[in-house]
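Problem 12. The chain below contains 122 residues. Write out its predicted structure in token notation.
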Amino acid sequence: MSTYQEFQESQKRILWSTYILYILLFPAILGFVINIKMLYKYRRLSKEYESQMADLVTMFWGHHLWLFRTFIITVCFGMAAIGTIYYAVGYVMAMGVIIWWFYRIIRGIKALLEFHPVPVWQ
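Solution.
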């Protein structure tokens, strides 16, 4: 197996394990820590690799950034939902946050299955 294929397979395994941690909800914080570590790694790798590997690094970086932002936004809106639960708005907001969380995870998994990058806006 070439270096390209080994890198691709190892990064796919890490990404799959992170998506699984996010699906399980409670260990998602461990997945968040993995995302932070991988984002720093990809920043370093993007400067080292040329052409073919750069595409892979960019795609995997996009997936980890997607999950990172999913976690941060969910935590922020989740806290807002908990803070407004007394006014009943929190219940609606909490349902929206849960639906949005699973939408992001499912969309990311679908993109990974098709081996496509997720839409990441800068």
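Discussion. The chain has one domain: 3-113. Students who got a different answer should revisit the alignment rule from Section 12.3.
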